[in-house]
């Protein structure tokens, strides 16, 4: 993996788009991500309106992410064994079909809450294959030279869709209902299928397929356990996913119960988070390197900002902090994603990424109903504070454990009149930055 010794110039911010295959893939992703965010907003609001319960929104999150908890590692095995391009074509075709069914149910006025739960679960089954295949396929599109840049741009594209989608979705819900959001997403998934089919296969950096064999799941888990950089990153992702990455639950409660701003306000809150996340994703393209200390530090910063949002006295203050949450969210997740991908061997990367995604999405499956219950039991403000405090404390604990394992300590001193804080080993010499 190329190592950058200096911050890249601004003209290199979109360097991976020089690759024709990646340009097609990115264009399809932008359309699809915008539509997915529209569908996500419409589904959450539909469940809230049908049930009148924030906890029901949490159950929807749980149903969508549970398949990753149950079958996520098998998605990594499939990704390592088979063509990522073919897997993505199949998964996006299935997603288009499910979105079309949900659109038909909603537009005919026959939707019930259990329909949304079932479709959410089936969409989660699609994600089991789609997410690891999509993550690893980026490497085949751009090769190692542009991989870090492409990972950051993928996050930017996802968040640009998150900026446009919720705002448009909120307007559509108010104007004509959520059913059309599902129909648009079905069409967008088919557009991604068309983009995947049009790629130049001869220009792909094909990864060697992993042979069939026993114990491949265990092999991937042992590999992660032996690599502290990957292991501690996944631990931090698990904590943040359970407590901090359930914004639909919090924002639905704030829009409906605290500020009474309706579906349009809910869409605006999501768009503000996405705006901050887009800024964070673009900032991540300027990184010269990614270290474990960056993952732990951004998790702590995200937790502090999210806890502060729970104390926000007004809608304006809350909205500004949502932008900060978006920035912290993306700086954390792009650092974690980049570190896991670039620290793993290419032949086992699918299984490593599937474990990472299992923890990321599985954590949200657990956290969705948990935080929904806390919102209803303790109120939105206390739940938001808790969602930030726990990751911040966990980051401090993980940092201390890593420092202890590496025999590092903090040394305080003065350089002239300036205070200096340094990380050193137990012998007093300068220690390596984590």
UniProtKB/TrEMBL annotation:
Places the protein is found: Cell membrane
Domain Major facilitator superfamily (MFS) profile, chain residue ranges per copy: 1-406
InterPro entries per the UniProt record, alphabetical: MFS_dom, MFS_trans_sf, TM_effector
Membrane topology: Multi-pass membrane protein
Keywords for this protein: Cell membrane, Membrane, Transmembrane, Transmembrane helix, Transport
Annotated TM spans: 53-75, 87-107, 113-129, 150-173, 179-199, 229-254, 266-285, 292-312, 318-340, 352-371, 383-403
Origin: domain of life: Bacteria
Main location: membrane
Pfam families hit by this protein: MFS_3
Record's protein name: MFS transporter
